[in-house]
Amino acid sequence: MRAVIQRVTEASVTVDGEVIGAITAGLMVLIAAGSGDTEKDADVLVGKIANLRIFSDEDGKMNLSVLDTGGEVLGVSQFTLFGDARKGRRPSFVGAMEPTSANRLYERVIEGLRGAGIKKVATGRFRAEMKVALVNDGPVTLLVDSHKTF
User: Fold this and answer.
1) What is the rounded CA–CA span in Å between residue 78 and residue 117?
2) pLDDT of residue 150
């Protein structure tokens, strides 16, 4: 599984003109499942997202996690994280997991974050056309892959 993790001061997701998920300070996380991913991969992402130390401590060093700061998480599914644009001009998405299984793993990540004690976990809507707005804080943006390919 892959995730793009952004430290934000606020973020929201809108579907059909209605805000369906919004957070204040915390993490905006785009989440994708690849073919062959398992529940173990989802659990790896949960651990990374919840415990990644990218918030500043009292000395200004990135030393605190979203759990430490009491921050919130907005998790949005985004299969295009498995887009392969190495050949040609149109990305290939053959590496993305089929939707039914991908949704199951996405939901496992969301439930895992809630179970980890994050005070608020908001979501987008799986397979919907979404508009995502955020204010990246820093900016801080990290790429995470459960298979550690990057």
Assistant:
1) 24
2) 85
Residues in the chain: 150
Catalytic option among 6, 78, 82, 123: 78
Domains assigned to the chain:
2-145 (3.50.80.10)
Is 78 marked active-site?
Answer: yes
- Averaged over 87-108, what is the pLDDT? 97
Let me know if 6 is a catalytic residue.
Answer: no
Task: Report the candidate in 40, 65, 45, 50 with the shortest Cα–Cα distance to residue 117.
Answer: 50
Q: Is 80 one of the catalytic residues?
A: yes
Tell me the per-residue pLDDT of 49-92, one tens digit each, with 9 for 90 and over.
999 999 999 999 999 999 999 999 999 999 999 999 999 999 99
Say which of 6, 55, 79, 82 is annotated catalytic.
79
CA distance 60 to 82: 34
Query: Among candidates 133, 119, 4, which has minimal Cα distance to 69?
Result: 119
